[in-house]
Amino acid sequence: MGGRRRRAQSEITSFESEEVSSIEWEIINMTDQEEDLICRMYRLVGERWDLIAGRIPGRNAEEIERFWIMRRWEKLADRRKLHKKENSKIFDH
Questions:
Q1: How much is the mean pLDDT over the chain?
Q2: Residue 5 C-beta-side C-alpha neighbours within 13 Å
């Protein structure tokens, strides 16, 4: 069982590093209104980035998808930090 866990971790790590190194990512700034619209449209139509981009003047599908992916990774990182913080409080007592 330990072998599976190690293998899965290495696959995740290699995927993450491939993803980061294969694409030049720039921070995409969205207005609050754009972000709200993206979230609502995503709930309605899913990953149909071209359809979502068509509702936001001046944005293209690639920008919307990149923004969404970066936003998800940000939220995941925030959750991990919170989880670590909560665990450290439990073990400190």
A1: 76
A2: 2
The pLDDT confidence band at residue 45, using thresholds 50, 70 and 90, is very high
The count of other CB atoms within 10 Å of the CB of residue 49 is 22
Nearest CA-CA partner of 16 in 25, 4, 26: 25
This prediction has a pTM of: 0.58
Dihedral angle of Cα 89, 72, 18, 11, to the nearest 10 degrees:
60
Q: Tell which residue, 92, 28, 32, has the closest CA to residue 59.
A: 28
Contact 38, 56 (CB under 8 A): yes
